[in-house]
Amino acid sequence: MPVDELLLNGAPRPFVSALWDSINRIGPPGLLQRGAQRDQYLSMQGITFTLSGHERPLPIDLIPRVIEADEWRVIELGIKQRVRALEMFLHDVYGPQNVVAEGVVPRKLITSSEHFHRAAHGIIAPNNVRIHVAGIDLIRDDKGTLRVLEDNLRCPSGVSYVLENRRTLAHVVPELFQDYAVRSVQEYPEQLLRALLGSAPEDIRDPVVVILTPGVHNSAHFEHAFLARRMGVELVEGRDLFCKGNHVFMRTTAGAAPVHVIYRRIDDDYLDPMHFLPDSLLGVPGLLNAARAGNVAIANAVGNGVADDKSLYRYVPDLISYYLHENPILPNVDTYDLEEPDSLCYVLDNMHEMVLKPVAASGGYGIVIGSQATNSDLARMKDVVQKDPRGWVAQPIVQLSTCPTVDDDGSVVARHVDLRPFAVNSGDDVWVLPGGLTRVALVENSLVVNSSQGGGSKDTWVLTASSTDLTGPITRPIVVSLNRRDELSPREAGPNALPDLRLQQQEEQQQQVWPPRSLHGQEREC
Amino acid sequence: MLSRLAESFFWMGRYIERAEGTIRLLMEMHQLLVGEGEEDQHRGSETIMHGLGFLPHTNVSLSDLVMSAYGSPQQPSTILGSLEYARTNARSVRDALPSDFFEVLNKVHARARALPNPRYPGASLRDILEGLAVVHGVFDWVSPRDEAHAFYQLGGYLERIDLVGRLLEMRIERGWPEQGPATVLRSVAGLSTYLRRHERMSEGSVREFLLLDPTFPRSIIRSAIESEGCIRSIAALTASRPEPVLRSIGVLRSQLEFESDLVTEQVCDKFISQSLRAVDTTSALVREHYFRPVGSIVWSH
Nearest residue of A to residue B96 by CA position? Predict the structure, then answer.
């Protein structure tokens, strides 16, 4: 039986009882109505996601997922730990490769990874950070334990929806926030900009940061534009940049302007036609040489994919103890190594209870869920896996936790969710955005939550520990007391305005303190 | 600013102005022609189609005109096309736009797309006009006076010259002596301004007004003065010289200002065609000077 995030045995958990009351007060017809308002808000704002070539609003559910402060503390520490270990792993892999020499990870795993790029050797930002932004996907199993499902260290996306989901909910169902002090998410762009500026070449006084996007037709373009706007940096496409003398410039109306840090939302393969796919029109020829010369920093670094490779995943707990000498705070989901004969046998015998994931794909594509596949599919998969054990990983099917979600008729139903917290590494510290993106499978019993396959999302609330322990800004408004003695005079009205009785009374009261402003152009004696 | 952004702002300005101008023109011309006999309707529709650059312009009925002007999202010279391209340009520079602007433009675009193909322009198009006024107003209210603003305005003013020039080339004020002059003035929302400053309406005085009155915001001379101003601002902001880009529109403006004492019909005609050429030349120069790729390196394998 899956665990529910908000309910226990059908009743609201103590920390969400006020929320549950508010939801019930709105009721199904109210929820439908708010849903229509939300859709209108989203399309007016142009908050969309491109699915199969069509622009549509990203489905965001009205009921938030709530995480208590104590649990968040553990998640935060676990994410920081994991990112630190993976940073050290990447340094090692593109450096001395001690982790291989000491037998922690087999060499073959690294060299056979399609994302291991020899070209990435020696290409690193001046502050040695490779993972500027990480998205670590978490799920909660049927015992209530949070586990890491997947690491995303290349171009993790979704953070713009985190920020917009909060604004959308506050706009459409503000009463849900009553009685709750929720950690703010709005400082993410600030933190990211700080981290990117920290990666600039050292002798530059005012480093220029840009976001490199594939363009408007990319499914995540909304996010690229959103972050550019919130950080106050230029959003560029490959054709806006060029390299000369191992420096990167952007084409402006005033000529060429230097660029020092590129937050790229383009895969390695398309980044530089001189080094990778030669027919890529999305990248910038010569970019890698400029980076190697230390004149531009590429964030996230080239070659990070070897560390979020699905085959490396089961070694990550070992990496944490090898590099940090610590026990992993967040456990993995059990994973079978199909190149090991016993494991392969076990998986083949129990295919109907397994999830099979192709190592090379992302976005949830190609996943086969044993319990939902037909017998002929399972037989075919057995064949495929035996022929290419390195290309697949197998995990027992985890009953993802559920969260109450508004259905098409306004009723509240349980749907499976996962969580993607985002971490920003500035070099000095790893900062974790409170909450992250909760993705929800909108189809009953579906376990596939990826937005690229029609899933939706929820606002994620991390509650503050108590009103005295504010580790971050909260969304409750702060009341400022006005000093009555310095009251400003009322707004001036034109000659045709009717006399405002309120103003006249106020003026009479003010006579002792302030020469009143006349409505009719006559000076009053004090 | 990024050349690509500047180009998008320039074209956004042009397309929004084009949408507004085309709608107004269509509404007023429809009013003019709808009560006429079939032959006159055909004559008028063909003239207007020709003036706006639509094909075909023979054997055209009034409803053909309406449908052509309304157009489709793929045709940039039509109402729907202008709105579509304005929005596409806005979307690609979304990060540099004030957030309100994109919302209101989106709203107008959605409303236009949702309209059934109109047989009669009228109430529905008036809605779109109002929406565009909001778009324009939001931009004016909220956007910083930087290069983006200057390019946007420049695009709008150049497009304005183009539209008024084409309108005058149609010679509606001559072809329909009774209602023509008033219709032409209404097409650019200039009737009440004209009437406050002049007593009689004649073919010649209306042409002169639209060409030479510096106080009317849609006159060619006013638009030329403003375009010049935008180009100078851009030059100042980019620390470059305005002269190369400024020449043809500057020459037009100074001729309109100083040679307009002896305005005959032939002189008017000359100025009108000069204006249309100036728009094309200036637009090409702006593109070459500010949007053309700088420092391109061609890699060969």
Answer: A229
Kindly state the tokens that stand for A71. 């649990």
CA distance B44 to B55: 14
Q: Which residues of chain B have pLDDT under 70?
A: 57, 116-119, 293-301
Residues near A76 by beta carbon (within 8 Å), at least 6 away in sequence: A421, A432
d(CA B150, CA B161): 17
Q: Give this prediction's pTM.
A: 0.80
C-beta of residue B185 within 8 angstroms of C-beta of residue B196:
no
Each residue of A504-521: pLDDT tens digit?
665 666 554 444 444 444
Q: What is the pLDDT of residue B89?
A: 92
Q: Which residue has the higher pLDDT, A498 or A114?
A: A114
pLDDT in tens, B106-162: 999 998 888 766 667 777 788 899 999 999 999 999 889 999 999 999 999 999 999
A64/A438 Cα distance (integer angstroms): 9
Write out chain A residues lying below 8 Å of B94, CB-based: 46, 225, 229
Q: Is A226 on the interface with B (CB under 8 A)?
A: yes
DSSP labels, A370-401: GGGS-HHHHHHHHHHHHH-GGGEEEEEPP---
Burial class of residue A508, CB neighbours in 10 A (0-12, 13-18, 19+): exposed
**What CA–CA distance (Å, rounded) separates A187 from B37?**
67
- Cβ count within 10 A of residue A498: 7
Residue A524 burial (C-beta neighbours within 10 Å; 0-12, 13-18, 19+): exposed
Number of cross-chain residue pairs from A and B with Cβ atoms under 8 Å apart: 78
pLDDT digits (tens, 9 = 90+) for A179-195: 899 999 999 999 999 99
Q: What is the rounded end-to-end Cα distance, in angstroms, of chain A?
A: 79
Contact A244 B95 (CB under 8 A): no
CB atoms within 10 A of CB B291: 20
**Contact assignment for B6 to A253 by CB distance below 8 Å:** yes
Tokens of A366: 């190609």
* E strand or H helix that includes residue B80: helix B79-92
Is the CB of residue A20 less than 8 Å from the CB of residue A178?
Answer: no
What ipTM was assigned to the predicted interfaces of this complex?
0.72
